[in-house]
């Protein structure tokens, strides 16, 4: 149903499978059942929150007040009691996407200097000419674009771009930042936009 409304969906049958997927991929939202065959959704969310702030909607037949409070206290963003309608699920997913990432009803673009990043269409132009980025380069740039003028830690970038439980080395992030600078900055050795924040990480600095 979600795919029919334009979402790309990946499923996991267990907590272990979810951990594997989260180690290898960056997702934008998790619909998490509280009852799993090898763990609980609450425990999975607790582990997830140590590495990522990805939005989480709990789905559970356990709908009393204490269960809902536990879900929110542990880091959940919404709690959907079973049984629920597909219409309500879609509404909750859409609402959480809007709160987290902005409106999905219009294209989201970020412009700085002569660079235009269309996050919706996943395109980048510099001086009106297309810039070819790898999938991971674009994901990294898009994350920085969504947090303009905010220092983002290396740990957060690795978690949100490479996967919440990824074991990618920090040097991989450094290399991808260098590649972005080479493609987007007039002088990559003295970047105007993609700045290093000492002892923190990186920031896309625009204006000011």
Describe the structure.
- With 208 residues, this protein is an alpha+beta fold.
- The chain folds into two domains: 3-101, Rossmann fold (3-Layer(aba) Sandwich); 109-204, Arc Repressor Mutant, subunit A, CATH 1.10.10.
- It has seven helices and ten strands.
- It has helices at residues 15-24, 41-48, 65-73, 86-101, 135-145, 154-162, 170-184; strands spanning 30-33, 56-60, 78-81, 109-112, 115-118, 123-126, 129-130, 152-153, 194-197, 201-204.
- It has a four-stranded antiparallel sheet, with helices on one face. A three-stranded parallel sheet has the order 1-2-3, with helices on both faces. It has a three-stranded antiparallel sheet with strand order 8-10-9.
- β9 (194-197) and β10 form a beta hairpin.
- The chain is elongated, with a radius of gyration of 19 Å.
- The termini are far apart.
- The model has no long low-confidence stretch (mean pLDDT 91).
């Amino acid at each position: 149903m979600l795919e029919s409304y334009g979402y790309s969906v990946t499923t996991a049958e267990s907590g272990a499978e979810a951990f594997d997927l989260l180690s290898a991929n960056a997702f934008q939202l998790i619909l998490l059942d509280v009852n799993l065959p090898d763990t609980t959704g609450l425990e999975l969310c607790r582990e997830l929150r140590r590495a990522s702030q990805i939005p989480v909607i709990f789905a559970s037949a356990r709908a009393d007040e204490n269960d809902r409070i536990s879900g929110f206290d542990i880091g959940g963003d919404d709690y959907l009691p079973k049984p629920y309608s597909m219409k309500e699920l879609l509404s909750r997913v859409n609402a959480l996407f809007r709160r987290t990432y902005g409106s999905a009803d219009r294209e989201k673009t970020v412009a700085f200097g002569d660079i235009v990043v269309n996050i919706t269409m996943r395109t980048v132009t510099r001086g009106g000419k297309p810039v070819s980025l790898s999938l991971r380069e674009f994901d990294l740039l898009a994350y920085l674009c969504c947090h303009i003028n905010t220092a983002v830690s290396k740990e957060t970038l690795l978690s949100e771009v490479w996967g919440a439980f990824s074991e990618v080395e920090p040097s991989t992030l450094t290399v991808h930042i260098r590649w972005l600078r080479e493609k987007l900055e007039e002088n990559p050795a003295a970047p105007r936009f993609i700045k290093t924040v000492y002892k923190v990480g990186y920031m896309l600095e625009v204006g000011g």
